[in-house]
Structure formats: structure tokens, C-alpha cells
Amino acid sequence: MLKRWRTRIFLFLAVLGPGFITANVDNDPNGILTYSQSGAQFGYSLLWTIIPITVALIIVQEMCARMGVVTGKGLSDLIREEFGLRMTFIVMVLLVIVNFGNVIGEFAGIAGSLQLFHLSKYISVPICAALVWLLAVRGDYKSVEKVFLTASAFYIAYIITGVLSGPSWHTAIVATVKLPPRAFWNQHGYVFMVVSVIGTTIAPWMQFYLQSSIVEKGVSIRKYAATRLDVIVGSIFTDVVAWFIIVACAATLWAHGMGNIAMPADAAEAMKPLAGSYAFLLFAFGLFNASFFAASVLPLSTAYTVCEGLGFESGVDRNFAQAPFFYWLYTLLIAGGVAVVLIPDFPLVQFSIFSQALNGILLPIVIVFMLLLINRKDLMGKHVNSHWFNAAAWLTAIIVTILSGILMFQQIGNVWKH
Amino acid sequence: MNEKRNGPSLTLLLGTPITEPRGSLFGRLNDIAVATGTDAGRIAGLVLKTKKGLELVPATEVMGTPSGALELRSTEAVQPLRGDENFILLKHDLLDRQIIDVHGRKVVRVNDVDLQWFSREEKQDLRVREVEVGLRGAVRRLLLGVMPRNALDKLARQFPPRVIPWEFVDVIEVDPARRVKLKIEHDRLAQMHPSDIADILEDLAPAEREAILTTLDEEVAAETLEEVEPKLQKALVESMDFETAAGIVEEMDPGAAADLLAELPEERSEAILGEMAPEERQEVEELLEFREDSAAGRMTPAFVQARVEATVADGIEALRMFEADPEGVTEIYLVDEKRALKGVVPLARMILAKPETRLDVLTDPRFISCRADAHQNDVAELFDKYNLRALPVVDSEGRLVGIVEADHVIAFLRDRL
């Protein structure tokens, strides 16, 4: 009996891979901040967004996974081959800027989470950056994947925090399946928060990263069912974690009227007197884990994607002399991220808004390219989208595009006001 | 003339207006068609986009004009492009695609194509000179239309060129029907060292790998497959049909073939074995019986042996008759009538001796061998301790069954690093 269970669990874990990792990296400090804010400001009333987000995430990620398996090429490779150098160049420049904004966010997350344990950012950030750099340069895909999967598992910390925070389970579950009363929609900032939550969930870099890792893993079409399961399980797990973050903040911060959170670490700090030191420790640890994890993935993924698309030598199995552009870009992204976090008075918030705005421009472009590519018979053969899937995918693309557009204008508007 | 050295680039040439002899606009340059087969590499003609659709005109039938436009000598040479000709279209098939740089031994992406005007029978003809894969081509592509063509050309030339001469370019065509039609045979690729071909395969997408491996002749394909990393080896063999796979596996070193087949699912390796010639099949099947981490799992059954009473002349004859690759041979093994190992003669010592000398005089009295079930760690230790180049493997009755070569040990040790 025990053995059968062990086999089952093993089979389940064996499926987990790029899809699970990508979806989890999505819960980076920026994501955690957004979820914490929504829980702290609006309580349980934003939980209904989780189910539609999950569906959208699965739809978009599944297309990438399928393209990677069928064509054996990365997304930037395909964009280059089908849409030419100029389009690729524009997409890559946008991607580098957007991802740099994210990298800064990750290092800020590392700094913030370790400050909770009274570790100065001038010590923690350089050390973590060096570790991140070495992890990719010294590790091979297999061992890195194992490290990443372990990191993904630590997201359970948030689920435990959610339980420890002692929420009203009934309210939370009802709020997940039911739209909130109309009064909420008239609240100041509610719509903006809805848009933010959805906007942070699907990021352009994820599509590039997921497709490349699947190509790198060398999944064959016959084993595609397992990869699809990986994507679905990953997306669901990620959003379950998001759900618990919102619930934890709703049960503590919102219940005590402490809605104002500016940095991801603030939520942990505020939770301490309300939910006890275990909840605080887990929340802080979860934040560190998420930040470090995302900081290891993003710079590397960016360097890979750009080199692939623009035809530079890439890959950690080559040395600095063989792939100079790859290593320079990778190193500069990390060094730049560290520098920005450590510079006193760097306009961090403005920059993150700027990169979020570019995100809003880039995401629709990437999704439209994906939809055009995946419907090409000469590339995908019989694995093109079905009519129904296409309808759902275009609908997702349109909604995501409109929402990220709204988010972009709202944020630019906010900057103008200040 | 200046143009001879600094030919036009494809990017800057595309879109050039083509005028009729009288001077009115006839069409614009849409693409350039390159012939394949016996005429491989020659430009078959310029593809024009006109009011009637796509048309083809030989490059000799146009002339440059001071304004930069091209002028047709006469409209009679213009023919419609049917679309089923055996052409490689430079823009459509080459720009932004991956090609193999046979000289530089790597996979690169094409940014631009450099062309060159030259004189042919008092007319101007065009040829493909080289493929641009560096910044120079990228700058042209990115800034085209942003600034005037002449200025752009000057600017682009400020960047160092990174080019691959056309004769070293190997085009990858995934569609098998089109590959046959275009006669893409990877002749030049096949001249490369199998390890280099293996590195290139590792850089390509699965369909492209398969396209190349199945086009190479079986012997080269087999040597290449031996050098590919095991995971990729498995994926490649799994993507081929049994017959093609069997043809390639047959040509592989039996030891390597057995390692590969052991990795495949049972029914697949059975099916491939079923397609193989009986002799090779038996050799591989015997090896498959052994544990992979034992000496027998690492060994190859291909070695040179002679009878214990043989002379140097017999030994050299045995070497001549040796069917596998003789380059790797370092020793000759002496066996008695029961195939029991009786001696090991280093090749160098045999060559220096007189033809009538008996081989058993030349053997080292303390030759080293190991049992088939010895663990590979022990095998590696023996190699290190006795500075071996090859190690004979014997069964429980002392009969010689195969040899482990130094490169097998190196491969195994590197796997553990």
C-alpha cells in the first residue's frame, strides 16, 4: 500500500519540470506584492480573479509548450525565422528592458526579505547575486532544474502562512466562486487592483523561458501529454499559492484595517503581531525564496532568449570567449540589478512603473506572434490550435491586452499626478 | 571597377526598381533565385514583382543605371515564375534561417547575403559571394528604410564583416521532398570530422538534425551518432524509422551500438535489431547481454587477433584483413585454438620486427587482461595503473571476447565528472 502511494507520488513528481518552474517563478516579489496589496486593501473580494487567471495562464503556457515540443525551437527563434530580424530586434530590446525591471524587483525582494532578519542589504544582495551568477554558469540543466523544483516546493510556505493566519474559510471559498457585490466596483482603486492582479500573472518572459526550457529538455511529441500536465499542474499550484497569499493578508492586515503596503516585505512585518512569529517567518522566508529563485531564472532566460533570436552564440556550456555577448548580457543584468538596489535614492518605483508599462506593450505583441505561429500548418502540422482553442486563446489575448493597456495608462497617469 | 570588390548586399538590392528599356517602371526586385543540382550556387535569375505577379529574369539581362535602378536589356527574357522550379530563394530560404558554416564548424543565422557583379561574355552577371552573419548585415537589415541606401551602405561598412564564403555554406532543408528536389546532399558537411558534425547536430532542432543525419551516408552518420551525447542519440534513433536506424546502427562500433540500443525501449531495439544484417546483429546482441557498467558493457568485439604460433607477416596480414577502422588498433592479441588469450603484441613492436619473427616472442610476459564482469571503475584503475591504451577482456574460461579502448574509458570518466 505504502509502496503504491510512493510510486504514485514519484510518478506525479516526475512529470513536474519546466511548466511547474515557469509558473512558480511568476510568483516573484512583484507578484507577491500585488497579491498582498489586494488582500490587505480589499480582503477576500478579489479572490474571484484566481480562477479566470488560472485558465488564461494555462491557455497561454500550453501553446508555448506545444510549440516547443513540435518545432524544437525557442519562441525567439521562431519569431526571427517567421517575422524577420527587425521585429525580433524590437521585441528583444523591449524584453531586455522589461526583464531588467523585473530583475531589480527580485533583488529588491532579496534585500527586503533579509532585512526582516536584520541583514543589511549591502551584504545580502551582493552575496546572493554572486550565488545566482555561479548557479547558472557552473550548473548543468539537470541539476539546475532540480534546484528550481526544490525552490518551487518551498512556495508551500505561503500556503502554511495562509492556514496559520486563521482566515474565515467559508467567506474565502464563497468569494472565490462568486463575483463581489456591485458596491465594490465603485470603491476607489478596486478596478485598478483587479487589473494589476491579472496583469502580473501573465508576463512575456514566461513564454520565452518555458518554450526554451522545453526545447532544452528535449521532450518528444509522444511524451507531450506529460508536459501538458506539467503546465497545468504548475499553473494551478501557482494560483493556489496566490490565493493563500491573498487570504493570509485578508485575514490579518485587512481584518485590522492595515491596507497600506508599499514593499513586499511590509506584509510580513505587519503580519508579525497579528498572526504570530511563525506566520511572519514563513512569509519572510517565502519571499526570500521567491526572490532568489526568480533572480536566478530571469537574467539567464533573458540572455538565452536574446542570443537565440539575434543569432549570438549562447549557452552555459560555452565559455566566455566563445559566447561573449551571452555572458556580458547575463552579467550586466545581474550587476545592474544589484547596483540599482544598492544605490541610495534610486527612483525604484518610477522605474518599475516604466518597465510595467513596457510590459503592457510587449505582452500583446508576444501573444499575437504566438497565435500566428501556432496556427501555421507548415510549422505545427496537425498540432495547430483547434477552432475552440483558438477562440479561447484569442479571447484571452484580447482581454489580457486590454487589461495590460489599462494598467499601463493607469500607472503612467499616476506618475503624471505625482 | 569599384562594384567588383564591394558588391551589393541582398538587403540593399531587394526592392530596387527595374525599368523597361524605354525607362518606364517594370517591377521591383523581390528575391534572387539560386540554382541547385549541377549548377549549384549559380544565380538562376532575379525574381521581380510586377503587375503580372512574380517573374524571373536572368541577371545578365539587366544593367545598372546611374540612378541606382536596374534596366532590362529587353523584356523578352522575362518569364513568369512557376513556383515549382528547383531554386533556393535567397530572401525566402536563407535570410534569418540557420545554416551550417562548414569551415567554421558551427551553426549560424543569416543576416544578409553579399552578392557580386562580374563580367560574363561582355555582359554583367551576378553571383553569390558570401553570407553575412555579423553586425554589418544586422545593421543593414535594422536601418533599411530609416536612412538612404547609400548612406546606410557606408555606415554598415564601418562595422567589421563576419562572413562565410558561399562554398562553405550548407543549407538545411527540413522537408524531405524538397531536399531531394533541390539535391541538398551535405557533401561538404560529410567531409567534416564526425565529432564536429555531432556538435552541430546538438545545436539544431530535432527535425533539422534528422534531416541532416539521414542525408549523410550511413558510415558517416554512424560515426557521427557515436559522438553525439547519449540522450540526443536516443532521441535521434527514436525519430527515425527502423530501417534507416538499422542501416546506421549496423555501421556503428558494436560496443557503441549496444550501449545505444540498451537505452531504447525494448520493442524499439528489437525492431531495429530485426532489420540489421545477421552478423552485426549477433555481435550487438551478445554485448547486450552484459551489464552496462561492467568491462563487457564497455568493450568492443572488434579487435585484431592472430594464432599464438603466427609470425609478424601473419600479424600484418591479419591487420590488413581487419574489417573495422584500423586507425584505432594499438595491439594484436594472440589466441590458442580454444580462443584463450595467450599474448598481447604492441603494434609498434611488431612493425619493427622482421617478418619471419614469431609473434609470441614479442609479447610482454606480464600482459594485463580483465574478466568480462569486472566493474568499469576497476577497468579505469587498470588503465591508470599500467598506462594502457587498450585492455583485452576475457570470459570465465579465459577466452578473449573483446577489448576496452582508452577512449571508452575517457568517455566514462568524463561522464562522472
Summed up:
The complex is a heterodimer of chains A (418) and B (417). Chain A is an all-alpha fold and 418 residues long. Chain A has helices at 2-15, 18-25, 29-42, 50-71, 75-115, 121-138, 141-153, 156-164, 169-177, 182-185, 190-201, 204-217, 224-254, 264-310, 324-342, 348-374, 377-380, 387-417.
Write the SSE topology:
The complex is a heterodimer of chains A (418) and B (417).
Chain A: H1 2-15, H2 18-25, H3 29-42, H4 50-71, H5 75-115, H6 121-138, H7 141-153, H8 156-164, H9 169-177, H10 182-185, H11 190-201, H12 204-217, H13 224-254, H14 264-310, H15 324-342, H16 348-374, H17 377-380, H18 387-417
Helix pairs in contact in A: 2-7, 2-12, 2-13, 3-11, 3-13, 3-14, 4-12, 4-13, 4-16, 5-6, 5-12, 5-14, 5-15, 5-16, 6-14, 6-15, 8-13, 8-14, 11-18, 12-14, 14-15, 16-18
Chain B: H1 2-5, H2 10-13, E1 17-19, E2 25-35, E3 43-50, E4 53-57, E5 62-64, E6 70-72, E7 79-80, E8 87-89, H3 90-94, E9 98-101, E10 106-109, E11 112-120, E12 123-132, H4 135-143, H5 149-156, E13 163-165, E14 169-171, H6 176-182, H7 187-190, H8 194-203, H9 206-215, H10 218-227, H11 230-239, H12 242-251, H13 254-263, H14 266-275, H15 278-288, H16 295-298, E15 305-307, H17 312-321, E16 331-335, E17 341-346, H18 347-352, H19 359-362, E18 370-371, H20 376-386, E19 390-394, E20 400-405, H21 406-416
Parallel strand pairs in B: 1-6, 15-16, 18-19
Antiparallel strand pairs in B: 1-2, 2-3, 2-8, 3-4, 4-7, 5-6, 9-10, 9-14, 11-12, 12-13, 16-17, 19-20
